[in-house]
Amino acid sequence: MVSLFHRKNTLKVLIVEDNEDDALLLCRHLQRNGFSVQHQRVDTMTALEQALRQPWDVVLADYSMPTMSGMDALMKVRASNLDIPFIFVSGTIGEERAVEAIRMGAQDYVLKDKLNRLPAVIRREIQDARARKEHRSAEQQMNYLARYDGVTGLPTRHTLLEHLKTLINTYNSDKRIILVLYIRFAQLNSTHEVLDYNTEVQYLLEISNRLQFFIQDQGLIARLSTHEFALIHTGFTAEDPIESTVENLADTLSKPYYLDTMPVYCSVRIGVAVYPGGAFDAQDMLRKAEVAANSIEPNTGSAFYSANMSRLIENRLALQRSLYDSLAKREFILTFQPQVDMKTGDIVSAEAIIEWHNSERGIITSDVFLPLAEESGFIFLLGEWTVRQIFHQLKLWEYSGISTPCIAVTITGRQLLEENLLDMLKQLLEEHDLSPSALRLEITEAAIMQNSEKAAIALREIKQAGIKVALENFGSSHSNLAYLKDFVSDFITIGANFLQGDIDTAADRIAMAHKLGLQTIAKGIDTAAQYAALRNAGCDLAQGNFISGILEPWMMREKLRNAPGHITK
Asked: What is the spatial distance between Cα 91 and Cα 62, in angstroms, rounded to a whole number?
């Protein structure tokens, strides 16, 4: 057997034991089994505290000692180091005590008259400790990325809303007003036709610097998406010239950005919401600032949210109302985009994508109408229609002699929390005589965090039913990665934003996902270089125009029949 310690000269063992002879006996036994041992024996709490200032590979402890308790030693070690293996080696510990000790954080126990188990236990537990440490490191990275944007270091949408919620909840009339600015940048023209990744990062950092100069220490800035930012400012009163100050900010932000001595020009739209001023909560305040930004013509300027913007809201409501007639008019079309296994190139799944072919407005994409459907409650009717259509299509392909893939469909937070969701899925699976593995539900982390506790329960029940689960937008600037470990899933998706710049960033997220036992799906792959780089990084599934565009059902059928995959580019 190859020793786990072939790369280390010495196994460092801290022995909590009142009997020196017993400690030496342990060391000799380990040496006879291939270990080179460096040890220290302690038998008081003071000596243990001092010893824990040094690194150790394993702690071996007696259970009953006249000078201290083995359980007290366990608590002290766990407070100092969560990962170091702690093994009781005792002649007096009974089964009940041993179970309690393991429940409190010990890894194992070995009886003194059965030391032959000890070498194998140590090897196993040191391996497990390394895995725990790697897992914790991945979690710490994700906790950071949940709260801070990986490119600019700015807080994310989630962090901004948390801060804004606190400000609103603690607001009183003696304080200054709360100002929320929603800022959207659009690149106009420059000597750079398309910014490369490094230049894009430099551009975003320059924007961040100008925003930071504006708020000084009187607020918070967040990056919401690629070129969208929001900031909270708490340094104004109602008597200050806020409108002219915001206009000056818009002018400052629209001045050219010199990147590698070359100028980049952009337009800037700033929407403003003020508290107090009719906003219900943090989400509502940010939404109103966004509505104000959307009301500006596509050039530089600013606008404060007001009732005069009701036209925009009315248009939105009109579109929302027309949703209810759309099913009867058969205006929804189900399309598919294949997903391939990056190891084999075979088509193993596909994403179902809904298009709304509105008789008055033309094709309306899902990113526009799904939020409207969710707000109105129409999402439940649409969701059932979508799943029914997917299952119907799967059976048609099956009848054609085609090996049917797993179909992925996005659900919203409101659908996930609907009590009847799982019952509906089970019923439709039974009606169509399909395996639960034929369906994969994809949901964004932002949607999950609307009610994280209830979402975790719902996802667990869905998984237990055999239906696959994927968390979407893994690593996006506004997704909430800190809680990824709390939600059961099979996959995470990596958005196109990570494929357009530094592929290493996407590779880091693939590695983190694999450490957590999750498979990865890269979406938005447009080039052979992206495909090759992601395959080399170990990505599991791939989707994008490089592989296939969005297909109507009959086209997807022919794709499965005639070209089942084998991407070799």
From this structure: 8
